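Mods, move this if it's the wrong board.
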Amino acid sequence: EVQLVESGGGLVQPGGSLRLSCAASGFPFSSYAMSWVRQAPGKGLEWVSAINIGGGSTYYADSVQGRFTISRDNAKNTLYLQLNSLKTEDTAMYYCAKTGEDVLGSYYMDYWGKGTLVTISS
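Not the wrong board. Structure tokens:
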């Protein structure tokens, strides 16, 4: 079965950094785009970033542009998100998600991990 396991979350002070990992299994990782989505406490889901199959194209929400970097290691079936210059508003559960594209060109995320919690606090 498809399995996505996030790790690397924790408590960090504002301005700090963290690197999240997502270990994927149960599907051909290198054949799918991947995304990171987050959910702040009491808030809705917010798409954060996406990366194409080969890792050469990356996309970011305006809220994290310039601070976060998505990457992947297809040989290790692992997705990463480097979080720099962290702000309190980055506090959220971070999920990695397997990403596909439908026939109309719309993107969807059909499998999600359980998430890893990132807390930014002084």
